[in-house]
């Protein structure tokens, strides 16, 4: 009886679709096309920092804190995503997009007008909160409104919008920032975000909201069951840990506080809440746990490539910011192609993809290592772009392979929760990749600059070192030995970062190997029990 209830609850649509006629179908198609714009706007806002960072750091005098331009956004977006899923279920996604769009627009307005670094980072956090809510609502709307035959198409469109945004954001920012300034980029996005929520609300057919939002005592009861304590302790744990590891000089005091908050989070999730953000009981399933850890490691290495290849192109190869942003085009094209090819040619049914996962994981690690050795001033630009394409191709393939494999290893009744867990681990990888990768890169770069200046008999230049840490474009303004040292230091830091990413991908391969070929019987039972309790 419990199994039937769990299965039913997970298959019951959050929003019940109807098909009253061509008019409603046309409105639905228009609404879901607007959903695609969400992914485009969110991803553009994320990747534009890779080429606009130098100008923002110079304007706000925040060279040492430049890694937080992206990290603040990613941490807020990842932390709020699971909570947004709960709130979407209470208010309905169609209504929740209005609130999320407002937060996104408010964050962009704050960022555009920020007079200081603190206000700028506040704007990035508020923007991340809105982005997380919109992304959660977009996925739920597609799953619940699109017909089974067209669902894959619209999910592909969201992914296409997201990938296009990552690729185009860096190029547009690099092209426009030197001409119009970085603030105008946010002023342009803010009105679009303000209109996006109401536009999507109006575009979706009224019949899709038949279930209606909760009201009165039912609303208060549902809001009371939301796991606010779990969300808060998880966010504080992540922020404290990353605030330490993202710094040029690692402070130790946030680490024990982070561990304490994480322990509190585990205790809350396992003992004190009926609707946990992360169902800890399900993580006792070996396949689920190993898949989440492997996904975290793989995507951290992937985000390092996305965030730092433009910086390498500017500082080492001397490209303009707009040209440096073009490096993200082939790797994102590969990412989209990999997922499509795997789904079209290989993943045709629920099956074990154990060997395929391990092979592609290894190839991804080798592609990342190859980028490390190609990150020189004189390597072939065509070859470098081709390897970035392969890196994206393997990463996109892994997104499909690993999810399909873990679904094969778990009970169908738990697939909704398992998919959410894997998506959450991939989302947090962006935060970890930008913050930890940025901190590692800054520490290596700082040490290399100081050593290089000393070896060449140059006087200590603490201010120049501080500027170079947050502004790769500064290299273009140097000359003589100073420029030589800066180029060599950026080359070395990029190589070390990509080698570390390759090692991390190999470690993720080991964890992926731990998922197993076939699910054990006790894993299946534990998986089913956790799913029943969560439902």
From TrEMBL:
The chain crosses the membrane at residues 95-122, 128-146, 153-180, 186-205, 226-246, 252-268, 288-315, 327-346, 353-375, 381-403, 415-442, 496-517. It holds the Pfam family MFS_1. One of its GO terms (cellular component) is fungal-type vacuole membrane. Keywords: Membrane, Transmembrane, Transmembrane helix. Residues 1-21 are annotated as: Disordered. The keyword Transmembrane helix applies. InterPro entries: MFS, MFS_dom, MFS_trans_sf. GO terms for molecular function: basic amino acid transmembrane transporter activity. This is Uncharacterized protein. It comes from Penicillium atrosanguineum.
């Amino acid at each position: 009886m419990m199994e039937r209830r769990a299965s039913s609850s997970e298959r019951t649509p959050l929003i019940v679709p109807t098909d009253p006629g061509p008019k409603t179908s046309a409105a639905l198609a228009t609404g879901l096309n607007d959903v695609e714009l969400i992914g485009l706007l969110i991803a553009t806002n994320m990747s534009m920092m890779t080429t606009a960072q130098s100008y923002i750091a110079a304007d706000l005098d925040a060279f040492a804190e430049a890694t937080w331009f992206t990290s603040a956004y990613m941490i807020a977006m990842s932390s709020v995503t699971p909570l947004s899923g709960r709130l979407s279920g209470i208010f309905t996604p169609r209504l929740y997009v209005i609130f999320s769009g407002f937060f996104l627009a408010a964050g962009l307005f704050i960022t555009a007008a920020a007079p200081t670094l603190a206000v700028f980072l506040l704007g990035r956090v508020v923007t991340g909160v809105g982005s997380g809510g919109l992304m959660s609502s977009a996925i739920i709307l597609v799953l619940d409104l699109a017909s089974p035959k067209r669902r894959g198409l619209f999910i592909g469109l969201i992914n296409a919008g997201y990938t296009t945004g990552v690729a185009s954001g860096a190029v547009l920012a690099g092209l426009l920032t030197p001409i119009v300034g970085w603030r105008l980029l946010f002023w342009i996005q803010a009105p679009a975000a303000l209109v996006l929520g109401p536009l999507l609300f109006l575009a979706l057919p009224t019949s899709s909201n038949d279930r209606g939002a909760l009201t009165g005592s039912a609303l208060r009861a549902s809001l009371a069951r939301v796991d606010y304590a779990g969300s808060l302790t998880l966010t504080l744990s992540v922020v404290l840990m990353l605030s330490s590891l993202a710094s040029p000089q690692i402070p130790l005091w946030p680490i024990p506080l982070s561990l304490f908050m994480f322990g509190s989070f585990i205790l809350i999730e396992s003992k004190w809440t009926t609707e946990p953000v992360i169902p800890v009981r399900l993580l006792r399933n070996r396949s689920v746990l190993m898949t989440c850890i492997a996904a975290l490691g793989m995507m951290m290495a992937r985000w390092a490539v996305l965030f730092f290849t433009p910086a390498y192109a500017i500082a080492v190869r001397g490209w303009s910011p707009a040209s440096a942003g073009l490096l993200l085009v082939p790797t994102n094209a590969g990412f989209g192609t990999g997922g499509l090819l795997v789904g079209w040619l290989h993943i045709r049914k629920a099956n074990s993809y154990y060997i395929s996962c391990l092979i592609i994981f290894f190839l991804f690690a080798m592609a990342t290592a190859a980028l490390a050795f190609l990150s020189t001033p004189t390597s072939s630009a065509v070859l470098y772009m081709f390897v970035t394409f392969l890196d994206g191709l393997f990463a996109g393939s892994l997104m499909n392979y690993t999810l399909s494999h873990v679904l094969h290893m778990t009970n169908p009744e738990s697939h909704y929760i398992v998919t959410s867990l894997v998506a959450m681990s991939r989302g947090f990888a962006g935060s970890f990749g930008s913050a930890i990768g940025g901190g590692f890169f800054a520490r290596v770069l700082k040490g290399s600059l100081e050593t290089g200046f000393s070896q060449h008999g140059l006087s200590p230049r603490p201010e120049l070192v501080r500027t170079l840490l947050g502004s790769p474009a500064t290299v273009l303004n140097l000359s003589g030995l100073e420029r030589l040292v800066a180029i060599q230091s950026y080359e070395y830091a990029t190589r070390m970062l990509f080698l570390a990413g390759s090692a991390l991908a190999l470690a993720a391969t080991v964890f992926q190997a731990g998922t197993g070929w076939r699910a054990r019987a006790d894993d299946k039972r534990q998986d089913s029990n956790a799913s029943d309790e969560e439902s």
